[in-house]
Write a structure and sequence with these properties.
Length: about 350
Amino acid sequence: MALLERTSGSRGTGTGPGASPTGRSRRSLAARRERRERRWSPGPDLDRQRPSRSLLVALGLASATLMTLDLTAGGAALDPVRGVVADVVGPAEAGATALVSPVLAVPDFFRTHSSLREEVAALEEENTALRAELGSAAFQRNRLAAYDELTATAEDLGYSLVPSRVVGWGPAQSFSSTVTIDAGTDAGVQPDMTVVSGAGLVGRVVSAGRTTATVLLIIDPASTVGARIGDTLDMGFLTGRGVVGDEGRLDLELVDRTAVPARADSVVTWGSDGGAPYVSGVPIGRVTRVYSSLRETSQRVVVDPYVDFGSLDVVGVVVPTGTTSDRALVGPDGELSDEPGGGEQ
């Protein structure tokens, strides 16, 4: 009886050694299906991570509520929230800006650097021009003053002058102390004409070309000028020593060997026949020393010239009034003629 029950139980469950092949196949199919479902199913973790529909609905309602409150209150309702977010996010934004700004500024740097170089180059060019202008300002000022003095000299002497400039220094025609001026026969300059500056007598013209002329200076040893003491009118002959500068002096030998001029007396030209080569009354210098010679019973007077021959620039050649010239002349009244030419009057 027991044997029958065991046999019956084994057949009923299909687990015993005598189970039928059909039962085993069904179990095998069921196991494979279960494994396949486990393999392709999302699993319990993914189900837990997926938000539920109720949560999405709640978030949507909350967002709509906040937007409604913000619009209704003019933005004041969310100010506290914005402040908190700003406190949290602000430092991060500042840090990101600090990191990114140098990179973003690279193009501007190159553009700015290029413009700065152009500005620096323009400023340097302007600075150079200003330096040149400043450097020539003193020269132009001195030359203008020399022209003013020359017009005053023409007025004092009562003669017309051809204004000119010294353009060369050197010996010419066996003379050792000469200068070249930029006025010649086209300007009305002829040999044996008196040359003056704003300070006094310079010399005489010894030769003239069309555009230039050579002037023998009174400091040359070969130069002799008839002169007189301005205060006593004592006459004499003035010669040069060929020296320029502080040691450049003139020697005056008086006709009256007994005359003794005083120190600082003025010396002027006494003039030549027809005003050639020297017109009268042109200042020459002042007396600095008087030497007496007992053996020759004569006086040797040392004269310090008014003209600084080492810095000659603007000079004037004395010409007759109405002289035809290629440039404007300084008239006897000290006025500059309006245009060159002139012509005989």
